[in-house]
Amino acid sequence: MKSQILRTIRDNLQSKMDHGEKISYFIPSLWLGTSLKEPLRRVKVNPCQFFVQKIDEILNFSLSSNEADYLKGEEWSRKAVVYNLFARHTTAFDHSQKGHLESARSATGFRDTGTFLKTIALLPYIKSLGVNTLHLLPITTIGEDGRKGNLGSPYAIRNPFKLDENLSEPFLGMRVEDEFCGLVEAAHHLGMKVVVEFVFRTASKDSDWVKEHPGWFYWIKEFVEDRPQGSMDESKYGSPIFKQEDLIQILEKVNNGNLNQSPPPSLIHRGLFTNPPSSERIVKENGKWIGELEDGSRVKIPGAFADWPPDDPQPPWGDVTYLKLFSHPDFNYIAYNTIRMYDSDLAQKPNRNSSLWDNIIQIIPYYQKEFKIDGVMIDMGHALPYSLLKKMKEQARQIDPDFVFWEENFHLSYESKKQGYNAAIGYIWADQRHPYKLKDLFYRFERETFPLPFFGTAESHNTPRSSARAGGIGYSRYSWAINNFLPVIPFIHSGFELGEERPVNTGLDFTKEEIEKISSETLPLFNLAELNWLNPNQLCEWIKKIAEIRKKYEDLILDYHHQTLRVIPCDVWDIFAFERKSSDRDVLIVANSNMERDFFIHLRLHTNRKDVKDLISEDTFVLADHSIPLHLKPGEVKIFRLK
To answer: Containing domain of residue 125, as a range?
Structure first.
């Protein structure tokens, strides 16, 4: 692979080596590749020397022919092992040891917050975990109107064609675009793919597009206030308030796939909305776009709200708004039937906001041509009009036939497969901690082949951290071992390997009490925060060990056909056992799902072997009458080779 931008970055740093000697710059020892047998600590380095050494390590890495060809073909997602990275957060660190992170550039020219350069340096560490694919949360410019926290949400995208300048290192004096090019180039040099997450149906309320294209947005009267949670005041803006009989009809029509003449929201809700102002009548006041109509009335961009169910009680979101994908005077409002369950009368070709569609369709090709990314994760892709999604995929795959589309969808359907998706988030994260649900999933794997591969993970940026669940780090070890031997895509949400307990966001699977205990001012999705890189109780070595075992049986594990998995009955409810088998290979996984109790069991196996070895502990177990005696500690997992 011809190295260009990456070497330019390296030479830039090399030329400033003497300057780097004068900078007090600390990093976690894990970033150096330090053996975990040594205590984790802060290490003072010359930042220029550190980054040059890491880039040299990447440039000198030699891919074998097998590695170079491994992630090829349109279904390479099935072979992926993913590291989910929120660039601003994952590589954030108090480099000058002030005792807190700074959001602004420091006097040294290096940022405390995460950057593309630091992510480049982290790639060898990430690869050592057995990872071959990076999944980046949105990396584009962030809006300021209604900004959450001190940094804002990466999902409040001000301009999808512009990268967040805060992800660059001012010390380099280079364009943020060049630094991202360097990251993708470095990943490719290590045989890793890069998948970037995008949001295509919302924008920040102060989007760069508003003044030039006011018709791409919904507008409401300026004096209209947001409706607080619990209020039923329809004169205030929020999710439409429907009568009970309308709700019943809406749910019935949606469930039957009948989106014709969907019940609209009330006249009061519809009356809050106006026509868009002309471009020349739009100005920014105190960071907010304000428009003036011909009659002199002032209008503003409304916030988005949860689109389903239609009576969701959440108050409007302050930082994002919905894009107006279809335009028709009878549907000039935000509701379930204009932003997700598109009414059949609205979703007609003449009503498409064609210039907006054309712009959206060009986003992915821009990132393919400029940065050579390998795929996208589409936030709420199932809520986009299929005709728009189809055009997006056609454009992307004309450039790269192997380009992948991942879906932020917890439901696994053949419809998603037909629409051209290669993978989905799925629902293991929700079922993993419930033994009866996980057991049901095993039986489903046994009897059917899923339409799409999905992520094997106990956590995401929207859920509680697995190490904060019952069982702590033991639960994380248990879940990772199981997920690596199911026909799924192993997925590490950054910080999982460190035993991190602080969630990034509280979007899914939190109780009301848990949310109340977590200050929104500490959530990394919106605020300055660093991972617990110095946590002595982490599981990096465990992840590496499981990766080594998985690699030996990869051909078997990557066979997604349901006949390769068989559940082994066990008299103890808390114990799971399943085989991954083919005509010539057979691996048995046994796990204790109870995070508090030990169990002594005898598991009957269909094998003629006299003994079997646990591939994790390397202990040998003697069989008696085809039965293996096992003592399983809380959360313990054993992996046996039977054939």
So the answer is: 5-196+357-377+391-404+428-555
